Amino acid sequence: xxxxxxxxxxxxxxxxxxxxxxxxxxxxxxxxxxxxxxxxxxxxxxxxxxxxxxxxxxxxxxxxxxxxxxxxxxxxxxxxxxxxxxxxxxxxxxxxxxxxxxxxxxxxxxxxxxxxxxxxxxxxxxxxxxxxxxxxxxxxxxxxxxxxxxxxxxxxxxxxxxxxxxxxxxxxxxxxxxxxxxxxxxxxxxxxxxxxxxxxxxxxxxxxxxxxxxxxxxxxxxxxxxxxxxxxxxxxxxxxxxxxxxxxxxxxxxxxxxxxx
Length: 261
Known about the structure:
This protein has about 260 residues and is α+β, with helices and mostly antiparallel strands. It has helices at about 10-15, 40-55, 75-80, 85-95, 95-100, 110; strands spanning about 1-5, 20-25, 60, 65-75, 105-110, 135-140, 160-165, 180-190, 195-200, 200-220, 225-230, 235, 240-260. The protein is about 15% helix and about 40% strand.
């Protein structure tokens, strides 16, 4: 991230005394999430600036679509590493994934997975169209717990899941005639993980919508591979393979599609 000091105009100096301004060029991969926003980085910057101002930070567009100008009181800047003059904004941006959710709308997994559980609470006809508000929202704490392994592989943190379609045993809707087993929209809180599990008779795809996800895959013969995925990336676990994943600092939102084989 490149930092350039910019002098404050005389008018601005009168309005905001003892302020330093710094132009920040967004060439740091911590800002890569801006590229994934509708409208690209430029619109993303505008949204970030609006968000910053709502929280009392002084931010404005730089001389191009790839930079912002941050202002802070002189004493604050003096206490802050010059490479991070807008660290509070970075922290703010990294919390927005989970803040987009109404977490109170999610029921605990143990409460949901009972006899007769339904993933959709609306009426369906021959033309199948589902409304978001009537889809089951479940929080798993954690998802796929596995006490037989160590660390994040055990599963940790919360996974906020919306069930979209399901033909899983116990949650089958009887809508799908193919081998498709489930479609879910999941959001892991920062640092949360899905416990290690093996897909014996199914295959599963993760399509990352936002945030980052470190995915570990174990082959049938025990080979191990780990890779970090960003928005727009995808992961496939094949029959007989196992996997686990950990969300990055901003969390991770991904679409899950599984099918029986």
